[in-house]
Amino acid sequence: MKGSPLKGRIRDRRLPEILIALHREEATGVLRVSTDSFVKKVYLSSGNVISASSSREDDRLGEMLLKAGKINIRQYEKSVEILKKTGKKQGAIMVELGYLTPRELYWSVKHQVKEIIYSLFQLEDGEYEFIPDGVFEEEIVSMNLPMGGLIYEGLRRINNWTRIRREMPPIESPLRFNSELSTLYQGIDLSDMDREVLMLVDGKRAIKDIIDGASHDSLDVLKSLYLLISMGLVQPCDRIEKAPETADGFLKDLDREEANFIREVYRLHERLDRLSPYELLNAGEGADQETLKRNYYRLVQLYHPDRYYNQPYQEDLKQKLTDLFVAITEAYRRLRSEKPEESVDTAAEAGSSTLQKEAQAQELYRKGLQEYRDGNYWQAAESFRWATRLNPKSARYWSHLSRALSRIPKRLKQAEEALLEAIKLEPFNGEHYADLGLIYLQADLKRRARTHFEKALKFDPRNEKALKGLEKIGSLK
């Protein structure tokens, strides 16, 4: 296949197979998928997805931003008017008009690209063609989108049970783990159910046995098996294998990198009071400013407490990361102040100040989480509020402030305002809309709650809060 055109129909060769083949061949070029209604393109470089485009109107950036509530209809129409006159990209126009910041634009384009790719997994037929080493016909924003994660999320969104049953092997088929593709999916975060189902695949159990042996609903297990088989991680066997390969090693490898990182954090934290500023920055005595700055930015990213912000069971680890984060920042500030003869990098100084504020915000956020879990909602809200003041660009801080306020009598309006700030920062995060729906449901605004639950499901079709919220609204009729 390498170096030659690849073409056919999706019904004969499904999209995951095509993408896996292109990844393994380290292909560079354009995958063109077309139907009577649209043409979508996926751009690859060395087997990795870097962008995507679509001729379908609903896939355009403006439409996505409008549906997300990031812009209003007047802003949308104004951008389209300028686009027709100038031919500029709509995203660039929105930045010029002040509707989006450059950071919001990049985030929005990345979301748009992912949604275009995810939508291709819904196709049951259509023509495809891969043009290797082709010159891209249009200017694209290149970004790094790991292939394994795209395939996993795209398949998770398939909810057509007729299709799932049709594409599944016979229920009597034994299944085996395919280690050849373990590297492709090394970095993805499998759901708990997918992990459990994968552990039951041993080269001996048939599909029906795995369904019976899992602790989840049979239809959910069937969908999980469909996903794992479509990913290529699991394959049907012609016969029961005597010494089958299991997924144990793969599942352990998923956690190995994280385990090594955690061990390094604890080891470094134990020596924290004995390390010199140069040692903290992994630099030799007398290192120049450029080396110090380069190491500093690398280390604060590596040990940023955000890595575990949504995992309450990692509180001790987050505290150690915060300690390292603050110590590294202080070491950099101290070493820079000791070198007055060298030119001062004002941008770095500003960055250092920003990072110190973020360290304080992280500490307040951690404190707020603990207070919230203890039921001290007033204190939690105050901690989260101070975190938003130190870093008003963190949607996470605004979201948790809203949750704390929603637990306090007569504070629903403030909870709504805080959550709207989070939505401004992350307009495509379904969790925010689900939380807002819960606030409106609490205020007995059922119509408004329904609207936001439905919007949450547009961005996250499996969002449990939204699904349960809609179910509750239905039961209240």
Describe this structure as you would to a colleague.
Residues 309-313 and 340-352 have low confidence and may be disordered. Among the domains are: 6-145, no CATH class; 158-250. The chain is an alpha+beta fold and 477 residues long. It is built from 21 helices and seven strands.
Based on the model shown, name its key terms:
about 475 residues; five-stranded antiparallel β-sheet; alpha+beta; two-stranded antiparallel ribbon
Helix and strand topology:
Blueprint: E1 6-9, H1 15-24, E2 29-34, E3 39-45, E4 48-54, H2 61-67, H3 73-86, H4 90-96, H5 102-120, E5 127-132, H6 147-156, H7 161-167, E6 175-177, H8 192-200, H9 207-213, H10 218-231, E7 234-236, H11 248-270, H12 277-280, H13 289-302, H14 315-337, H15 346-373, H16 377-390, H17 395-406, H18 412-425, H19 430-442, H20 446-459, H21 464-476
Antiparallel strand pairs: 1-5, 2-3, 2-5, 3-4, 6-7
Q: Biggest sheet: strands, sense, closure?
A: 5 strands, antiparallel
Secondary-structure-based class equals alpha+beta
Binned, the helix content reads 55-70%
- Count helical runs: 21
The number of distinct β-strands equals 7
How much strand content do the residues show? 5-15%
Oligomer: single chain
| Poorly predicted sequence stretches spanning 5 or more consecutive residues | 309-313, 340-352
Overall pLDDT metric: 83
Radius of gyration: 25 Å
Order of helices and strands: EHEEEHHHHEHHEHHHEHHHHHHHHHHH
How far apart are the first and last residues' alpha carbons, in Å?
58 Å
Basic shape: globular
